[in-house]
Structure formats: C-alpha cells, structure tokens
Predict the structure.
Amino acid sequence: MKTTRALTLLCMLAALGARAAQPKAEIEGSASPAEVTIRDARRIHYRLWAGETLSLSVSGPARLRFEVRIERVRGARPAVALVELDGKVAAQPRVLIAATPKATSNLGLAVSRATVVTVNVPAGKHAVAFRWPAGTATNALVAVRGVAIAGPRPEAQASAVLPLPAPAASKAPATPLLPLPGLELPRAPPAAAEPVAPPPAAVAVPAAAPAPAAAPPREVPAVAVAEPPRAQAPLAAQRPTLPDANLRRPDPDPWTLTLFAGGERSSETFTAPATLGHVGVEAKRSFWASGLAVMQLDWRTSQQTYVNGHPGAASDITSVDEYRYDALLAVGYDFGHLFESGRLSIAPMVGLKYVKLQNSAFPLDLFGVDLMGRVRYALSPAVAVHCSVGWMYNLAHPAIFSALGSPLGQFGFRAGLEFPLAGGYALSLDYQGDILAFDYSYRVAHGATAGFGKSF
C-alpha cells in the first residue's frame, strides 16, 4: 500500500513538473471557452465565429499546436484558416469536416476530427494569431497545446461570456436596503410589471416614523446597497447558435472561373515557324473534403504550313489558316493538407481530352486519356507560385497522307505567378508550352499567357 501511494505521489509531482516546464502563453482579447466531449472525456477549446481571431502572446522557444475542429458538421464545407506569427503568415490549414464518433460540443452539436497545425515559436515573446475565415457558416473549436496558458481559469471565462438570464418579475424591491441595527425601514411598494430605469448608486432613506418615546426621532441614514449594473452579454454570446441558422454561403469559394489570353510561337521539323493567338477559359470546382474537378476550353489560331507528300517536295508546301480546339474534363484529389503547412496544394488528376486541328489541308482529331498534376504554393497572402503539367495519349490513329504522319499525343504545361486580389479576384502571369507528337515530327509551341479569375 505504501508503495502504491509513493508511486501515485511521484506521478503527480512529475506531471506538475512537466507543466511547470512548459512555455507560457497569455490569451489577448476576448475568447469564448467551450467544452468538447469526446468519448465521455471533456476537453477545453475556444469557440471562434466567422471572422474572429484567437490571439496569443507566447514566450518562446515553444512548439505551439492548434487542434482545430469544425462545429455543426452536418452540411458544412471545408474551410481554410490563417495562422500568423508576428503578423506574418505561418500556415494556412485546410480544416476538414469528417465527423468524430461520439463527440459533441457544449451546444450539443457534432464536431469534426482535429486538424493539427504546428507553429515553431522562436525564443523571446511573440504574437501568434489564429484567424477563422469570415465567409464560412460554421464555428471553429480551437484547442491550444504545447504551452501553459496563464490567466483566469477557462471555467471562469466561460461564465463571463454566457448570456445573463432575463430578470423574472418579482415583488422584491429593485434596490434592497440594509438598515442599521435597531432601525426598521418601511417596506417598498411592489415592483411594476414594466421595466424601470436602473436605480442610482445610493438611495437616501426617508425619516423614520416618530417613536412613542418623548424624545423626538432623528434621521438615521441607511446603508444602501445598489444593484450592480447588468453586464451586457458579449457579441459572440448574442449570435444565433441553432444548427439550422445557416444563412450564410456554405462554402466561401467552391467555384473558380479564369480567362486566359496570350500568344505563342510554333515550330516544326520540316516547315517554317508560325505565330499562334491563344484564348481559353478554365472552370474549377471543389467538392467533398479535398476533391477537385477542372474543365478547360482553349482556342488557337495561326497561319500554318504543311508539306504535301514527303519532306523533299519543296514545291508542295501549302500554307493554310488553321484553328485548334482543346477540351478537357478532369477530376483529382488535393493532398496538400497532409503536409500540415496550409500553403501547399498538390493535386494529381486524370481526365479525358479532345484536340481538333481544323484546316483545309490535313484536318485531324486527337482523343484520349489525359494525366495531369497541379502544384501551388503560397509565398504570402499576396503572391503564390503554381505549375500544371499534362500528357495525353491519343487513342485514335488515322492514316494521313502527310510528311508528319498521324498524331500520337500531346504534352502541355503552364507555370507562373498568381496574385490574389480583393473580392475573390486573382491575376496570373504564366509561361505556357505545348508539344504535339506525330509519327515523323514534333510541333513545339511556347509563349506568355495572362489570366484573370474570380472565385465565388
């Protein structure tokens, strides 16, 4: 028995020592503590409404971890939060919506699995902020790990942000008075049903009734205890918390539409180079947790030369107006959330692509499976780098009487910079390349492209 008590005491001392060795942190501003019950175990979180921020003052070095959950999982959409260290972007985590079994918040709502975001805080005192986006209809429940939070206990903070109950109609006086010993005060009249203005801090007591004794009564001041002013509930506690109060847009940016325009220079083995004009449109749609669907339409125009028969027949070279049409439909999955940085997006994709070359000499068609890859990395909230690569294998090989032969496939890429703008708009400047493979030659084109997009 003594051994068991000694081990218990030793474990308690070790836990206290580990907590004392943790870096310190203080919460700045208003935060609404909330409890999350996971398999009968209660854990303290902080509830953030749309557009709110959880600010911490951390004494480093520390390895700060945010465990983020989405409240009101049913009908919710993934959201992208923002974590800042001393005013600079440290992470942009994509919070998922997969529900946690047997997990509810103190409002009785289901919560999602935890998305962990790690921030390495250097030595010294630093400001860390977790910002929840303003365009989402769900709340965030954020738990802070890796630091010891100083200040009032979360239970005391929770009672401070809950709305106060409405005063019930009562016959008791609005301002109770405590008389001095030996003095009987007159009873106050019943309180009116309609609300009355709050009383002053102190109320003077009228003179007491004459006593039966011969001595004249004297005014004895009473000690007045004023009712403290009723604190107004914080704005966060006054907001609706019903699950069906879904009046906002379920997902801030499910659609992205981008228009492209630019010019390219095309060259082949047997013919002179040509200049191409290029315009296109791309529609992107996010679905599920990290699913992605892309549809592209491109149109190119040029003055193209062809060799009739074989490469040595110079007199049989023909110059024609040519139009090229590209159509692509692809789906994929974004694995960027696995890296826990929030800035990176990596999406392999697969789809079907159709290419048509329309001219009066040798029209042809390509149709096949297209394998794509998309990578995007946010350098800052104002600029990001991106790259997309795709290769299509042609499933149809018609016999064409041309020095080029029949088409085999197509390879394309686009890489450049993206500049997000206010209102969901974005500007991109890219370098684009394209290769058409034939039996006996390659048609290589490359040039600059500018894009303008809108997310909605």
Notes: The longest strand covers residues 53-71.
